[in-house]
Amino acid sequence: MSNDNIAMLQALHADLESLKNAIEGEDHDLAERIVSGHDQRLRDYIRDHGVQAEATALQGLLEQQQALTGRMRELRDEAAEHLRHERQSARAANAYQQAGARP
Q1: Distance, CA of 58 to CA of 55 (rounded, Å)
Q2: What angle do CA 36, 28, 74 make, to 5 degrees?
Protein backbone atom coordinates (compact mmCIF):
# COMPACT_ATOMS: atom_id res chain seq x y z
CA MET A 1 0.00 0.00 0.00
CA SER A 2 1.38 3.40 -0.96
CA ASN A 3 2.03 6.19 1.51
CA ASP A 4 -0.84 8.16 -0.06
CA ASN A 5 -3.22 5.27 0.56
CA ILE A 6 -2.06 4.92 4.14
CA ALA A 7 -2.41 8.66 4.75
CA MET A 8 -5.91 8.69 3.25
CA LEU A 9 -7.04 5.72 5.35
CA GLN A 10 -5.56 7.30 8.46
CA ALA A 11 -7.48 10.50 7.68
CA LEU A 12 -10.70 8.50 7.24
CA HIS A 13 -10.16 6.75 10.59
CA ALA A 14 -9.35 10.11 12.21
CA ASP A 15 -12.61 11.51 10.82
CA LEU A 16 -14.58 8.77 12.55
CA GLU A 17 -12.71 9.30 15.82
CA SER A 18 -13.39 13.05 15.60
CA LEU A 19 -17.03 12.33 14.83
CA LYS A 20 -17.27 10.08 17.88
CA ASN A 21 -15.82 12.85 20.05
CA ALA A 22 -18.17 15.46 18.58
CA ILE A 23 -21.18 13.22 19.19
CA GLU A 24 -20.14 12.42 22.75
CA GLY A 25 -19.62 16.17 23.31
CA GLU A 26 -23.03 16.91 21.76
CA ASP A 27 -21.42 19.26 19.24
CA HIS A 28 -23.91 18.59 16.46
CA ASP A 29 -22.70 21.35 14.14
CA LEU A 30 -19.16 19.99 14.25
CA ALA A 31 -20.45 16.44 13.77
CA GLU A 32 -22.33 17.55 10.66
CA ARG A 33 -19.19 19.15 9.20
CA ILE A 34 -17.11 16.07 9.99
CA VAL A 35 -19.64 13.77 8.31
CA SER A 36 -19.68 15.95 5.22
CA GLY A 37 -15.89 16.00 4.97
CA HIS A 38 -15.59 12.29 5.71
CA ASP A 39 -18.16 11.45 3.07
CA GLN A 40 -16.26 13.42 0.45
CA ARG A 41 -12.90 11.91 1.43
CA LEU A 42 -14.34 8.40 1.33
CA ARG A 43 -15.90 9.03 -2.08
CA ASP A 44 -12.57 10.38 -3.33
CA TYR A 45 -10.74 7.35 -1.95
CA ILE A 46 -13.13 4.92 -3.63
CA ARG A 47 -13.08 6.89 -6.88
CA ASP A 48 -9.29 6.96 -6.92
CA HIS A 49 -8.74 3.35 -5.89
CA GLY A 50 -11.91 1.52 -6.94
CA VAL A 51 -11.43 -2.23 -6.98
CA GLN A 52 -7.78 -1.70 -6.11
CA ALA A 53 -8.74 -0.56 -2.61
CA GLU A 54 -7.52 -3.03 -0.05
CA ALA A 55 -10.42 -4.96 1.42
CA THR A 56 -8.79 -5.34 4.84
CA ALA A 57 -8.21 -1.60 5.13
CA LEU A 58 -11.80 -0.86 4.18
CA GLN A 59 -13.02 -3.59 6.55
CA GLY A 60 -11.34 -1.82 9.46
CA LEU A 61 -12.94 1.44 8.44
CA LEU A 62 -16.35 -0.25 8.19
CA GLU A 63 -15.97 -1.80 11.65
CA GLN A 64 -15.12 1.59 13.14
CA GLN A 65 -18.12 3.12 11.39
CA GLN A 66 -20.43 0.34 12.65
CA ALA A 67 -19.21 0.82 16.22
CA LEU A 68 -19.90 4.53 15.95
CA THR A 69 -23.35 3.88 14.49
CA GLY A 70 -24.08 1.54 17.41
CA ARG A 71 -23.06 4.25 19.89
CA MET A 72 -25.28 6.75 18.09
CA ARG A 73 -28.22 4.34 18.46
CA GLU A 74 -27.49 4.02 22.18
CA LEU A 75 -27.45 7.80 22.58
CA ARG A 76 -30.68 8.10 20.58
CA ASP A 77 -32.36 5.50 22.79
CA GLU A 78 -31.13 7.23 25.96
CA ALA A 79 -32.48 10.57 24.73
CA ALA A 80 -35.81 8.97 23.85
CA GLU A 81 -36.03 7.45 27.33
CA HIS A 82 -35.32 10.84 28.93
CA LEU A 83 -38.05 12.42 26.80
CA ARG A 84 -40.53 9.71 27.80
CA HIS A 85 -39.74 10.28 31.48
CA GLU A 86 -40.07 14.04 31.02
CA ARG A 87 -43.49 13.70 29.37
CA GLN A 88 -44.60 11.27 32.07
CA SER A 89 -43.48 13.67 34.81
CA ALA A 90 -45.21 16.59 33.12
CA ARG A 91 -48.46 14.61 32.85
CA ALA A 92 -48.22 13.55 36.50
CA ALA A 93 -47.58 17.13 37.64
CA ASN A 94 -50.47 18.38 35.54
CA ALA A 95 -52.82 15.70 36.94
CA TYR A 96 -51.70 16.55 40.47
CA GLN A 97 -52.37 20.26 39.91
CA GLN A 98 -55.78 19.55 38.42
CA ALA A 99 -56.69 17.25 41.31
CA GLY A 100 -55.65 19.94 43.80
CA ALA A 101 -57.74 22.58 42.02
CA ARG A 102 -60.97 20.61 42.36
CA PRO A 103 -63.34 21.66 45.16
Answers
A1: 5
A2: 100
**For the whole model, what pTM was predicted?**
0.73
pLDDT, residue 58, reads 85
Using CA atoms, how far apart are residues 55 and 35, in angstroms rounded to an integer? 22
Q: What is the pLDDT of residues 42-89, one digit of tens each?
A: 999 888 887 667 788 888 899 999 999 999 999 999 999 999 999 999
Amino acid, single-letter form, for residue 68? L
**C-alpha distance from residue 6 to each of 43, 77, 87 (Å):** 16, 36, 49
Cα–Cα distance list, 103 to 22, 94, 100 (Å): 53, 16, 8
Q: What would the 3-class secondary structure string for 36-60 be?
A: HHHHHHHHHHHHHHHHHCCHHHHHH
